[in-house]
Structures are given as C-alpha cells and as structure tokens.
Amino acid sequence: MADLGLKIRKERKGLGLSLKELAERVRISTMTLHRIETGKTSPSVLVLSQIASQLRQPIDYFFQAKEPKMLIVNKEKQSVIESSGIQLRVIAPFELTGKNVLINLGEATEGNFVDPHTEEGHTLVYVLEGDAVIKHDGIEHYLREGDVLYYDARYNHSVKVVSKRHRFLSIFFKEGETNHRQRGPVI
C-alpha cells in the first residue's frame, strides 16, 4: 500500500498538482488523498481508476514492481553471437537497460568484420585492445587501443581490423521506439 501511495504522490508532483487540486479532480477529500498517499488507507478500484486517469497513467502502472537497485547478469546468461572472425557478447540488451540502449563487448580477428551498413541511432565505441579502421560516410578513421569513437550510425559505415586481435566495448543508442530484439555487431 505504501508503494502505491508513493507512486501516486510522485506522479502528482511530477504534473505540478497540489494535493487539493488532485483531490478535487477525483472528487474525494484532501484528507482521503493524503491518507492514500501515505499508505494509511487503500483506494477503491473506482477511486484508483480516477486517480490514474487524472495522473495520465494506466491503472496497472501503480501495481508494477519497482526496479531493482542492482542487477547482475552472470556471464553464462549473456548472449554470445559468433561468426567468421568475430565474437560479440551482448552484456546489456534492450530488455536489461529498459531503454533504447544496447551494450556489447566484442572481439574480432584481423580482416573485415562489419560490412557496410546503416542503423537508426548513434554508437559509442571504446577500443580495449588492437587496431581497426572504421569507414564512415566514405572517410576512413584509424582506431587504436584507448581511443573512443562516437558516430551517427545512420551514415554508411564498415569496420576492418588491422591487428591480430581487436577488443572493444560498444554502446548503441537506438532512435525511435524500443526494439526488443538483440542485434548483431555494433562498432
């Protein structure tokens, strides 16, 4: 009950509504709303439905479990995508981040490993080991260990590893609606 009240208070304040304003809109007393927000009483389904409507939230929003303060994804539960010359470990898929963000840890061997393509979003790459060349919008850029790269993935880009081994961390920021499918290599 306390979590329900806290969520109601948070949403009310987020919309800039006073306790009195929301109570008047829902047609309950200010004291009743205060008791709901402090967890001293539970609203009826009808009252909760009216509160949810005024706070512009679906009624089930108030019953969803709150997000954990910490989450561990053990190595054996991380998805691994492998193909010729590359291994990509999806260390934080869209489902984990809950947003339009995908985090990969990649390892590739010498040669081309990301063919020319485009994606709807932006990518941040941190080179952990080795050298690579990224061709972005027709221009080649040389990357070494420790380099950070941020680019608009909507432009055509490809990657070629020029050292024996190349390891990187990439973070893809997807534009538009969340895509809950896991993606292939991002560098």
Describe the structure.
Helix content is 23%, strand content 38%. It is α+β, with helices and mostly antiparallel strands and 187 residues long. Strands 1, 2, 3, 4, 5, 6, 7 and 8 form an 8-stranded antiparallel β-sheet that branches. A hairpin with a 2-residue loop joins β1 and β2 (86-92). The model is unreliable at 177-186 (pLDDT under 50).
Topology:
Blueprint: H1 2-14, H2 19-26, H3 30-37, H4 45-54, E1 79-83, E2 86-92, H5 94-97, E3 101-117, E4 121-129, E5 132-136, E6 139-143, E7 148-152, E8 157-174
Antiparallel strand pairs: 1-2, 2-3, 3-8, 4-7, 4-8, 5-6, 5-8
Helix pairs in contact: 2-3
Shape: elongated
Radius of gyration over C-alpha positions, nearest whole angstrom? 24 Å
> Total helix count?
5
Q: What is the string of helix and strand elements?
A: HHHHEEHEEEEEE
How many distinct beta strands?
Answer: 8
Mean pLDDT: 84
How many angstroms does the end-to-end distance come to? 46 Å
Q: What would you call the structural class? A: alpha+beta
